[in-house]
UniProtKB/TrEMBL annotation:
<protein>
    <submittedName>
        <fullName>Uncharacterized protein</fullName>
    </submittedName>
</protein>
Length: 153
């Protein structure tokens, strides 16, 4: 005789309680894609629900960092405090930009470096295909960057 199937009500109750898909799968025996389907149908985001985990996804311990927002969603206080300091604007690498302008672009340019190189090459009057070849991107990316330059001007 096989294991009893988890009822829809059991899965929904556990989802509303904030348990992860894996914990519901282990507790009820329901397939993980079934649990995910129920979560999606209920409109619950998976990344906010980790009530059964001792830490948040960044490793902060939950008992002392547990918080609830106005909708009742569980979140990590330490992560929300660090949210404003997580993004630090980085200065583009001038050597990478110069290499891209010369046609010897590095393997990977950051989006900011790519935009700077496209701007310089666009001022020199090169076509989108020529710029894309030098910067190692698609010509559509060049068209998009040109339009953002014009909108900003």
């Amino acid at each position: 005789m096989g294991a009893a199937r988890a009822s829809r009500e059991d899965i929904e109750r556990l989802l509303y309680a904030g348990h992860s898909d894996l914990a519901i799968h282990e507790a009820t025996g329901a397939a993980r894609d079934t649990v995910a389907r129920h979560r999606k149908r209920l409109g619950l985001p998976g990344y906010l629900t980790n009530a059964d985990s001792p830490t948040c996804r960044h490793g902060h311990p939950f008992p002392e960092n547990r918080g609830f927002d106005s909708n009742g969603w569980l979140y990590c206080l330490a992560c929300s405090r660090n949210r404003s300091t997580l993004y630090v604007p980085v200065q583009p690498d001038e050597m990478a930009i110069e290499r891209a302008v010369a046609g010897d672009a590095p393997e990977r340019l950051t989006p900011r470096e790519r935009a700077a190189a496209v701007r310089i090459l666009d001022r020199r009057g090169l076509s989108a295909a020529e710029i894309a070849g030098r910067v190692r991107c698609h010509p559509r990316n060049v068209y998009y960057l040109r339009s953002t330059f014009r909108r900003a001007a």
